[in-house]
Amino acid sequence: MDNILSLFKEPRNPEILFPLDGFKSLLIEMGWEPSDWLEHWRINNGENLATAFLAPETKIDWILGLCLPLLSDIKRSIIQAKKRRLFGISALPGCGKTTLGKWIEQAGKDLNISIKVISLDDFYLPSKELEIAMNENPWGVPRGLPGSHSISLLEESLDRWLQTGHLKAPKFDKALRDGLGDRSGWLESDADALVLEGWFLGCDPIKNSSNKDLHNDIPLPSITIEEINYRIKVQNILLNYIPIWRRIDRLWHIKAIDFSSTASWKIEQEKEMLRERGSALKGDSLISFIRMIQCSLPQESLMNIDADVVVEINKKRQVLSVALKEGRYS
Fold it and tell me: How much is the pTM?
C-alpha cells in the first residue's frame, strides 16, 4: 500500500514517470478527489488486486496509471449509468491489452463488479470465409486486417447485450490450424459492463485523403504499389466498422509513443503463445504479420484515435502520461 499512498508525495517512486496534472484531472472528471481516490484503493487493497493475472514484470506505474483508473471508470459507469455501457480499449498488438483485460475481469470479481472483456479478434470470420476475405492481401496474413471480422455478428452481439444484458459472442483460438486460428465455441455472459478491445479499435478512415496521404508515413520504395493499393482498400473497409465505434460509450487508447514498438511486442507475444500452446505465428509468417501492422493502416490513423482517455507508453511499456484526450472536454 506504500506505493498508493506515496503517489502524490515526494520523493516519487522512480518507476512512476507520468505527470500528475493530467492524471488528477482525469480523476476529477470521473468524480473523484485525488486524495479520496488514493484512500479508496488503499482500503480496497488496489495494489494487490488480481496480481496473478498480471505479467511478472508488471510495474507499479501500470497498476496505478492504467489498471486502477480504468477499473474506477468502469465501476463508476455501472453505478451511475441508467443503461448498459460499452467500454473500449484500443492498443497496438503485443502492448498488453489482453493481459489487462484478464486483470479487469478478475479484479472486478474480487470487488463484486461483473465485467466481461471481449476482443475484436473473437469476431474473425469462420476459417473458410476468413481465407477468402484475406486471399489477396499483399502480406499474405491469415487474419488481423480490417475486413477479417464478421461485423454483422459483432453488431448483433453488442445490441443483444445492450438491450437485454445477455451477451453471446464467438471465441477465436489463434493457436488452431497451426497458428492460423479458428473459431472455438461461444461465450455467454450477463455482465453489467462490457469492454471491447482491439488493435485498430476506434480507427476511422482518413477524411479527404489523397493516395499520397495514405503512404507518406512510409516513404517509397519501402512501401510497394501493392501495399499502397491495399491501404486504399482498407480505408474503404474501415467505413463498415464506424457503426461499431459509435456504440462505444468510453474509449481508452493505450498509445505507443514509438510506433515501431509493436514489432518487438508482437514477437514477444507469439513466443509466449508458442511456449504456452505449442503453436503460434513464426518465421516468415510472423514477419509478414508485423509488416501488415506497420503498413496496412496509416500511422496517423492509429496514433490519433479519438479516444476519451489516452495512456502513453514507451517501448518498455512504462506509462509516460495518463490524461483525458486534449480538447475532448472543456
Answer: 0.93
